[in-house]
Automatic annotation (TrEMBL):
The chain holds residues 246 to 613 of 613 of the full protein. Catalyzes the first step in hexosamine metabolism, converting fructose-6P into glucosamine-6P using glutamine as a nitrogen source. The keyword Repeat applies. It comes from Oleispira antarctica RB-8. This is Glutamine--fructose-6-phosphate aminotransferase [isomerizing]. It is found in: Cytoplasm. The active site is at K363. Homodimer. GO terms for cellular component: cytosol.
Length: 368
């Protein structure tokens, strides 16, 4: 049917606020109270998953960032080597595919030309199996892959991807657990992640409740020309996705860096005209991140930090330090992208850009 914006001014905003609902949809029938169900991945899956010794992920744009987060998850929880590459590179270079590789394409549309070409090339090279994590039933990637894990986010109209991203991550966390169980993850560890997943829609709801605060903060960005997004670990790809959102719809130059790399270049750019946005959940890397932020502060940079509520940074006022509830570690990427989606949305609205149809971009790039 024809999608409608309902009460929302833009599809992107509607789709952002749909996330708690579509994440629930994505989890539906795939988890019990404590376990990830094998049926989540289709009838042929169990036998294939048993044999996976390496994972190769291929995607473009926002879907590539889901892949980047997944690499951190798969290597951490499943202990299986995982590589991620943008499809336009993978398809044109001499690639080596490890024995018993599960090749995963990630795509909202299932029609991205580069991703499809990369899948076809990898199949020719020889794979254990291919899987697509996709939002569009019957799409080319779904038809040409051995397994498919549908994100079930419903039609996404805004060119800047929101709900497709968080449902990709949700689905890929399920897949991570399925692989991890076969590689020594304990039942207790599985239960911990599944229990967290049951809380996910509510946590995303809480992050969305920050909307009015973020709308205010967006005023401080409207006249900026550059910005730097920082994160560490699986929050680095979230910084990348936050930067991509801001670029796509507000046309502000945004770069993302793993915070530990600051001193190897970007620190030279820091001055009062360049806002620095950091995502700082409460995890093992928080202390390291905070010391990176101190370096920025000492050089006169204007910091905007999205942090766990227990973090009390310097004397940042509430336009510069936004608190989020404590999130189970495996869910941090999914929850912390929400405020960054909202930030880019409000900055774009203030700048008067065409939020749902940004200049020069297409929802789905089906030709090379
Ligand atoms: C285009 C869209 C992006 C999207 C990318 C990959 O660039 O504008 O929002 O992330 O394609 O699309 P896919 O459908 O393969 O996820």
């Amino acid at each position: 049917g024809t999608a409608s914006k309902g009460e929302y001014k833009h599809f992107m905003l509607k789709e952002t606020f749909e996330q708690p609902t579509v994440i629930k949809q994505c989890l539906e029938g795939r988890i019990s109270a404590t376990k990830v169900l094998d049926q989540a991945f289709g009838v042929k899956a169990a036998d294939i998953l048993d044999q996976v010794e390496a994972v190769q992920i291929i995607a473009c744009g926002t879907s590539y960032h889901s892949g980047m987060v997944t690499k951190y998850w798969i290597e951490k929880y499943a202990g299986i080597p995982c590589q991620v590459e943008v499809a336009s590179e993978f398809r044109y270079r001499h690639t080596v595919i490890a024995k018993n590789t599960l090749l995963i394409t990630i795509s909202q549309s299932g029609e991205t030309a580069d991703t499809l070409a990369a899948l076809r090339k990898a199949k020719e090279q020889g794979l254990l199996a291919s899987m697509t994590v996709c939002n569009v039933p019957g799409s080319s990637l779904v038809r040409e892959s051995d397994l498919c894990l549908m994100t079930n986010a419903g039609p996404e109209i805004g060119v800047a991807s929101t709900k497709a991203f968080t449902t990709q991550l949700t689905a890929l966390l399920l897949l991570t657990v399925a692989l991890a169980k076969r590689n020594g993850m304990s039942e207790a560890a599985e239960t911990e992640i599944v229990t967290a997943l049951h809380q996910l829609p509510g946590l995303v709801e809480k992050a969305l409740a920050l909307d009015p605060v973020i709308e205010k903060i967006s005023q401080l960005f409207a006249d900026k020309h550059h910005s730097l997004f920082l994160g560490r670990g699986p929050m680095y790809p979230i910084a990348q996705e936050g930067a991509l959102k801001l670029k796509e719809i507000s046309y502000i130059h945004a770069e993302a860096y793993p915070a530990g790399e600051l001193k190897h270049g970007p620190l030279a750019l820091v001055d009062e005209d360049m806002p620095i946005i950091a995502v700082a959940p409460k995890n093992d890397l928080l202390e390291k991140l905070v010391s990176n932020l101190e370096e920025v502060k000492a050089r006169g940079g204007e910091l905007f930090v999205f942090a766990d509520e227990s973090v009390n940074l310097y004397d940042l006022d509430d336009q510069h330090l936004v608190s989020l509830p404590t999130v189970p570690c495996c869910l941090e990427p999914i929850v912390y992208i929400i405020p960054l989606q909202l930030l880019s949305y409000h900055v774009a609205v203030l700048k008067g850009t065409d939020v749902d149809q940004p200049r020069n971009l297409a929802k789905s790039v089906t030709v090379e």
